[in-house]
Design a protein that fits this description.
Layout (H helix, E strand, L loop, with lengths): L2 H55 L11 H14 L1 H33 L1 H14 L8 H8 L3 H25 L3 H9 L4 H36 L7 H10 L3 H29 L7
Helix pairs in contact: 2-10, 3-4, 3-6, 3-8, 3-9, 5-6, 6-8, 8-9, 8-10, 9-10
């Protein structure tokens, strides 16, 4: 091997090492930025609660309607120790889970089929466009009339709220897939199921996850509304019964718990999205 060859190999090795260092530095910076974002997401609600506590202590706000966070936390601990809070939370989570499965799975299938098939989209899309703007709380009396005051009415209420954002986003996810991928599938004579499984579903996943996250927020809103009418358990029932007895701190406990569940579900779905859609860059 000549001296020129040795110099070229050494230069190439140095370039490869430099590129690896750049990749390592970039990954370290992304991890540090992610940690900072997580700390900021925790700091903002903590700062709000601190300002609320100070305002209550100084008498800036009326504690009859805005009790100090410390008194709300004390009420939360009391309800948790008595078992009332945990029981109501578990019942609400069970209803949300069942409603999510009942509304979310058909929504993904229908949304992706609408994106693949123009005739199906022409048939179903007007129905979704017409019914989506109807306030979901406005159809609660109709749901109670059909399903009664039992568990099914609450589950159906959640399912209806979850269905629309998931279906609409699933369709949008398929429509944004480049036509060349669908043409390749046709060239290889891919069946409808293969097109659904290997092209449409993976390509639409980022939009599907967006719809699921929107549906999770709507599910929490609608389960609270449904449980305030004709229910004897759940977070919504706990808030409504506290209002009837003017237990303001207990009402805030219910609101705080809904906010905490929403935060936890959002964090969980974000982690699931990073794991499932590994090709999607972190924002």
């Amino acid at each position: 091997m000549s001296a020129q060859d040795r110099l070229e190999i050494g230069a190439q090795s140095g370039v490869a090492a430099s590129a690896a260092d750049v990749v390592d530095i970039g990954e370290t910076q992304r991890l540090a930025a992610r940690r900072r974002e997580r700390l900021m997401s925790i700091a903002s609600p903590v700062g709000l609660l601190l300002a609320w506590e100070i305002a209550a202590r100084l008498g800036v706000i009326d504690v009859r309607f805005f009790p100090a966070p410390t008194s709300i936390i004390a009420e939360l601990i009391r309800l948790a120790q008595s078992g009332e809070l945990i029981e109501n939370v578990l019942i609400s989570l069970q209803r949300i889970t069942l409603g999510f499965l009942l509304g979310g799975i058909p929504a993904v299938v229908i949304g992706i089929v609408m994106g693949i098939s123009r005739p199906v989209r022409a048939l179903v899309d007007p129905l979704i466009v017409a019914t989506f703007p109807i306030p979901k709380s406005a159809i609660l009396p109709f749901i109670l009339l059909i399903f009664g005051l039992g568990e099914m009415s609450k589950v159906v209420m959640v399912a209806i709220g979850v269905f629309f954002p998931v279906a609409i986003n699933s369709t949008a996810g398929v429509l944004q897939i480049s036509q060349i991928y669908l043409d390749v599938g046709k060239s290889f004579k891919a069946s409808r199921w293969d097109t659904f499984r290997t092209i449409a579903l993976p390509g639409a996943l980022p939009f599907v996850m967006t719809g699921i996250k929107l549906g999770a927020g709507l599910a929490l809103i609608l389960i609270a509304v449904a449980e305030m009418v004709g229910a004897k358990s759940g977070i919504g029932y706990m808030i409504w019964s506290a209002w009837e007895t003017f237990s303001v701190a207990k009402m805030y406990v219910g609101l705080f718990v809904i906010a905490l569940i929403g935060f936890a579900v959002s964090f969980l779905l974000r982690e699931v999205e990073r794991w499932v859609i590994r090709w999607k860059p972190d924002v």
